[in-house]
Amino acid sequence: GKMEQSAKCFQGLILKDQNHPAALMNYAALLLCRYGAVVPGAGANAGEGALVDQLTAVNLAKECLLTALKSDPKASHIWINLADAYYTIGDHRNSSKCLEKSVKLDPGCMATRYAVALHRIKDVERSQDPYDQLSLAGNEMASIVRDGDSAIIQAPVAWSGLAMVHKVQHEIVAGFGKESNELMDVEESATYSLKQAIAEDPDDAVHWHQLGLHSLCTRHFKESQKYLKATVARMSKCSCAWSNLGISLHLSEEPSQSEVVYKRALALTGAEHAHAIFSNLGNLYRRLGQYGRARAMLTKSLELRPGYAPAFNNLGLVFVAEGNLEEAQYCFNQALQADPLLDAAKSNMIKAAAMSRLCVSMSSCII
C-alpha cells in the first residue's frame, strides 16, 4: 500500500530506460489504480477543470501503455490496461478496440475474459441497455466462477464480478419499473453472489463494503449498516466505508450517529474525497433544519471542488427550505451546468420554478 514509494521506484526505472515495458506497464497500472477511481461518473461531476490532476495522471498512464506496446505489441495485459485508461478518460470507442485486440491475442486467458466482461458491464451502466452486453457479461462471469483457475482469478473476485452483473440488472429493472418479482429476483441474485465472495475470503473488507453498498442501494439500511460496520472493523482507515455508513445512518433517520460517522470519515479522508463528505454532512444538517451549518458545509465542499454538482444541488435545497427561490434556482442551474445527468437537480429546478411562479401568482392576487 505504499503508493508513493512504488511510484518513485517505477519512475526511477523509466528514467534509466524509457522503453522498459514492464516498468511502463506497472507504473501505468499504479496511476490507474490511484487516480482512475476518483474520476467521477454521471451525477457526481464538477465544473470544467476540477479534475485536471486526475485526468493528467490517467493520460500519462495511457502514454506509458502506448510506449510499452511499441516494445511488446502482443502483450494482451497491456492492451487490457490501455482499454481501462481510454475508458476512464471517456474514449469508449478506443477502449473497445483495445479489448478486441486483447481477446484476439489471448482468447483463453481468464484475466482477459474477466476484463472484457467487466467492460461490458460498464458499457451497460453507461448506456442503460439491458440486453446483449449484460447477457454476455453474465455468461462470461458465470463461466469464470465455474471454470476459473484460482491461481489467475481468485474466487472472491470472480463472485464479485458476477455480483456486478446482478447489481446492474437490479438498477435497470428498478429504473424501468419492471414487476416486483423480477426486481426481487435480481436483488437476491446480487446478494447471493456477494455473500459467496465473502464466504471465500471473510477477512476481505472490500467484499463486505460491496455488500453494504448493495444493501444501501436497495434501501435495506439496517443490513447495510451491519455490513459496513464489518467493513470498518476490517479496514478502520477506509474513509469511503465510513462515509457510506454515514449515508446509511442518515437515510435511516439516525442523525446523531450519522454526524459522528461523517466526521470520522472526514478525519480519515484525503483531498480527493473530502468535498463529497462535506456535501453529505451539509445535506444532513439541512434535514435537521440547521440551515446555517448546512450552508457552511456545502460552501466548504464547493471550495474544495468548485462546481461539484451534488453540493450545488444540496445548497439549492437549503435555499428552498429558507424560501429563497431565486438563489435555489441559481444553484440547481449551476448543478446542471456541471453535470447535465444529475436528475435530482433537473427535478428540483422544475419544482423551484413552479413554486416561484405560484408565489408570483399569489402575490398578484393579494395586490
UniProtKB/TrEMBL annotation:
SMART domains: TPR (SM00028)
A Pfam family matched in the record: TPR_8
UniProt KW keywords: TPR repeat
Positions annotated as TPR repeat: 76-109, 275-308, 309-342
Record keyword Cell division present: no
PANTHER family linked: TETRATRICOPEPTIDE REPEAT (TPR)-CONTAINING PROTEIN, TETRATRICOPEPTIDE REPEAT (TPR)-CONTAINING PROTEIN-RELATED
Stated name of the protein: UDP-N-acetylglucosamine--peptide N-acetylglucosaminyltransferase SPINDLY
Organism of derivation: Eucalyptus grandis
